Amino acid sequence: MFALPLNGQNLPYSDPIHPIFVHFVIAMVFFSFLCDVLGYFTGNARLFEVGFWNMFVGAIAVFTAIIFGQFEAGLAQVYPAVQPILNFHTVMGWSLGVIIAAITAWRVVIRNHNSLKLPPAYLGVATFLMCLGVIQVYLGSKLFWVYGLHVKPVVDAINQGISP
Length: 164
Known about the structure:
Layout (H helix, E strand, L loop, with lengths): L17 H25 L2 H31 L7 H31 L6 H27 L5 H8 L5
Helix pairs in contact: 1-2, 1-4, 2-3, 3-4
């Protein structure tokens, strides 16, 4: 079997790629939400167009983030304290991918029906998505900053037999 050589962060490349895609998705989806809310309250339909395209691109990019997240989680040296957080982060990530795809599909239908308005129900569901996104950001931050997944000193300690 072919095995890639791993660096000091337990990765086959210089730095984790998952956070790069994740931050892109976060920016796209949150900016979409902002544009939609501003468009709704100002009546500026151009903001709906910006919101649509940001959500559309975010819906594509979220699956790239998930794929890299799964790959990098598989390479991480997961110890017992981190396992529940990583499991929940993984389930939330896949759930958010599906929710973002569903909201984007709904948005396509709304746009094709009437691109000048957004129903309040859409904004309600998008608000719920933002809340889930905040929870996911918290979990991802905790995995890195508290538990040190793919952080060189933590990887070195585990390799030396020191239990975190």
